[in-house]
Amino acid sequence: MSEFWQAISVNFDKIVNWIPVLLKSTGTTLLLTLCSVSAGLVVSVFLALGKMSKLKILSKLCSAYIFFFRGTPLLMQLFVVYYGLPYMGITIDSKFFAAFLAYAMNSSAYLAEIIRAAIQSIDKGQLEAAKSLGMSYPMAMRLIIIPQSIRRLIPPIGNEFIMIVKDTALVSSIALVELSGKTKDIMIASSSPLVFVPALAIYLLITGVFTFILNRLEKRFSVYE
Amino acid sequence: MENTKAPMIQTVNVCKNFGSLEVLKNVSLTVEQGEVVCIIGPSGSGKSTYLRSLNHLEKITSGKIYIEGTLLDDREHGVNKVKLPKEEKNQLLLKMGMVFQRFHLFPHKTVLDNVTIAPINVKKIPKSQAEQIARDLIKRVGLSEKVDVYPSKLSGGQQQRVAIARALAMQPEIMLFDEPTSALDPELVGEVLAVMKQLAKDGMTMFVVTHEMSFAREVADKVVFMYEGEVAEIGTPTEIFDNPKHEKLKQFLNKID
Question: Which pTM does this prediction carry?
Fold first, then answer.
């Protein structure tokens, strides 16, 4: 252990110099995560409601989508979007956009299941009370059920976000540079594993800040309890 | 208002099956306008299921339901032969307000918002007007000082009183009570019954599933005893409580005394 601290103090200047380089790649990591989780969230609400729909076809379609994206590796989905779609006549020039598509579709499937579970965990009596007051199903969802499920959604959404932050490391496989890929490049160039120290610290910083924000949100949505 | 003499609610041969289990067998009952009718009976006798079928929280298998003389349901094998326009059907359903055993207040809304949410969104009443009505109703159930708190800060009895105000805010013509005091601690039952008694005194038509025999005796115009999905006996409180005829009713009354 003491050798480790010695190595850090000897190479301190080097490590400090790596930080700005790493931070530049962190931009891609963050942007990709934020964009795909946000888009995924929007899509997932419709997927969840669709899966719960009484319309058999809609429900089956949504289930199939969720089954596919949860049942196959994210890396393969990324390959299909970036390398596979051109064979179907759809070429995506931007690596970032291809990654965004794959990650958004993947996270929408996971988030849909999270949302469905949260909605179904709300007491059936809430829907009955809404109905007895003349509310239609969509109105009851909008005014009564969904607002109550938000608080229960926050912790699992936080999980999903953290997973995606780390999974963005996979995009180096389509040669899109982000934090993990950059770390590896520096490690090879410097023939030293020390670059992991600032890289890991950056990951922890991102997930730490995010966890903090979510905890605050959870408190805010719990005022009525 | 010519047909104010039509019964508030009338059901003819209402049956409900859960699979092969017959929960309701030919239940035919009438609630006249302004009447307070209490349904008593052992648990599992179909009282709640019957009450919940009236406002479509349960779907009956067969039979007819009239609301103020208008046919709402005429079902056979669960299929409704009455095809009312959606708007008209909703209007009929809105004549009934419901109070649940477990209150089911909206926990994310304050007391005031619980009472105004349906008038504002369903009836499209302007917010200020809905709040005025709500404040009056909340005052009527004795909770004026609680308008801005969330339901979790209220006792069960207070929650149930808010639930009554919430149902009244839609200005129903009949109130359905599904065991309104069964989930309450004994010392909180009285305050809810007091509100219900006042409501009856004000002339509200009420259909009450209850285990509170003293309430039924004091307030009801008519008491219905249900047993195994059937109406076993109907009568005035005096007839039912002092001179029961049905063997099961005698047993039931003995057990709870």
Answer: 0.83
